[in-house]
Amino acid sequence: MTQVAPSLALARCLAPGALTAADNMALDDLLLDEPGWFIRLTRWAAPAVTIGRFQPWPERHDSFVAGLHSLHPFGVTSTGPDSLPTVRRVTGGGGIVHGQDLTIAVAGDCPSQTFPNRRPAEVAACISSILANLFETPACSRAGDDRESSMRDIADCFARQSASDVVVAGPEGPIKAGGIALAFRNGRVLIEASLRRDLLAADPDDDLQRLSRLAIELGLQPQRWEQGSSFLQGSWSEEIATRVSNRFGNPDWNRR
Amino acid sequence: MSEVPGDRKYLSSHEWAQNVGGLVIVGISEFAAQELGELVYIDLPEVGSDVVFDTPFGEIESVKAVSELNSPIAGKVIEINQQLVESQQAITDSPYEEGWLMKVEPSENSGLDKLLDPAAYEAQLSGS
Q1: Range B9-127 classified under CATH 3.40.190.80
Q2: Taking CB atoms and an 8 Å limit, are B61 and A92 in contact across chains?
Q3: What's the average model confidence in pLDDT over A181-200?
Q4: Which DSSP string do the residues of B56-67 spell out, in sequence order?
Q5: What ipTM score was computed for the predicted complex, to two decimals?
Q6: Which of B41, B64, B67 sits opposite A124 (nearest CB)?
């Protein structure tokens, strides 16, 4: 008797144009509330810093951002350090500089066939292992003891160590190639990931192919890529505007 | 198998409620505490604020993951566990005693009667 494989869940693949930091975070937050699976390529209108949901707002913002520069392994931007917009994420973890990284988001049901258990460490280990496959050089999930809590005050993502890191072999030991942060809400999970682009293949046109591969490795069936801004019109546009106004674009919410 | 005390009731999202002399103590189950792993931050409501049954009242962060906490009771927050603001270890070590989250004065339609009894919650855990 022939066994029929369970049908794969469809994943909407979204690649909007470059958005502001607040719009980007509001869209991710919306994807956490929308039904279905989403794979998203995040593009930045300008270099930006995102900080974790509960990370303390830096008391001296200029030195915080300057710290990001000195810690960041591949020189972020020529923009002055005090002009980097900083916005809070809904996911946990610490600060991440965006602009030259590959930023992606995955949102979907949890528990589900893809993530059978909603235990954060298990979901993190699963997605981290799959993200490692996006690198051409051998990469893996760091695994082992979680040290994130003791390092949450360190500004830059790539200077912290966590069990969920994606690491590649370097001449002087493992190099952190990617980090993730998660949020769980109403039976769903949002995963935001930042990967070092300098350790990925050079052609940025490969991004969509990489993310389609990611969807397949998550056990999802990627739909055709929706690019531009058409899917951001209508109710999504209103939702994003509301979330920016109330939270991600609101200095009081970001700095609390 | 996680411990499920028989002297309280449960929300399917793993929060518990215990009625003690008219006040309802709220926490998360041992199963939930184990699932979350190492905790690094908790955000609890302000004393005097209202909480709504089966609706988020706070958030908790572990392993770079933020999870919402749903209230198993509707009413007014009378007290929060201040000890948890500094360290969340009590939630992991003693989720049913020292790791309680808040005390609530229940409203008239508090939702307490809609919660799972210990046997039903245990059955849910067996199936998860």
Answers
A1: no
A2: yes
A3: 93
A4: EEEEEEETTEEE
A5: 0.85
A6: B64
Contacts of A150 in chain B (CB under 8 A): none
The alpha-helical segments, DSSP class H, found in A61-219 are: 61-71, 120-132, 206-217
d(CA A187, CA B54): 13
- Of A22, A30, A26, nearest to A48 by C-alpha is A22
- Tell me if chain A has a CB within 8 Å of the CB of B64: yes
Helix axes A235-243, A21-33, angle to 10 degrees: 120
Which of B38, B64, B88, B92 should we substitute to test contact with A (largest number of A Cβ atoms within 10 Å)? B64
Q: Which pLDDT score is estimated for A145?
A: 55
Non-local (6+) Cβ contacts of A46 within 8 A are A20, A21, A79, A85, A99
Give residue-wise pLDDT tens across range A14-51: 999 999 999 999 999 999 999 999 999 999 998 888 98
Q: Could you report the per-residue pLDDT of A154-186, keeping only the tens digit for each?
A: 556 677 778 788 888 888 888 888 999 999 999
Residue A111 Cα distances to A189, A238, B72, angstroms: 9, 29, 21
Q: Where are the domains of chain B?
A: 9-127
Among B18, B126, B21, CA closest to B72: B18
Nearest by CB to A92, from B56, B64, B68: name it: B64
Q: How does pLDDT run across A129-158, given as a tens digit for each residue? A: 999 999 888 788 877 655 555 545 555 667
Report the distance separating Cα A53 and Cα A36, nearest Å: 24
CATH of domain A9-255: 3.30.930.10
Q: What SS3 state is found at A207?
A: helix
* CA–CA distance, B8 with B73 (Å, rounded to integer): 12
